[in-house]
Design brief:
This protein has 73 residues and is mostly helical. Helices cover 68% and strands 0% of the residues.
Length: 73
């Protein structure tokens, strides 16, 4: 696994942890499912966005917006 792939995995883990922190009724499997099924996840995977290189809180703001509004950004 290269460094970028590790950073992407770490971002997914951190987003799931942030979801669980904000809503303590969410379990890890559910949090990961939310992240993996989001457009934000697609942005993390797209190296042109550099989302994997940003702070987890910054990327989390996109995920929260997506969950509220149905779209990223």
């Amino acid at each position: 696994m290269n460094e970028k792939e590790q950073m992407k995995l770490d971002m997914v883990k951190n987003l799931a942890l942030l979801l669980m922190s904000d809503d303590q009724s969410i379990q890890m499997a559910d949090a990961l499912g939310i992240v993996f099924n989001s457009d934000t996840y697609q942005c993390i995977q797209n190296e042109k966005t550099h989302f994997y290189f940003q702070s987890p809180r910054y990327v989390y703001s996109f995920l929260v917006n997506e969950l509220k509004e149905g779209k990223v950004g």
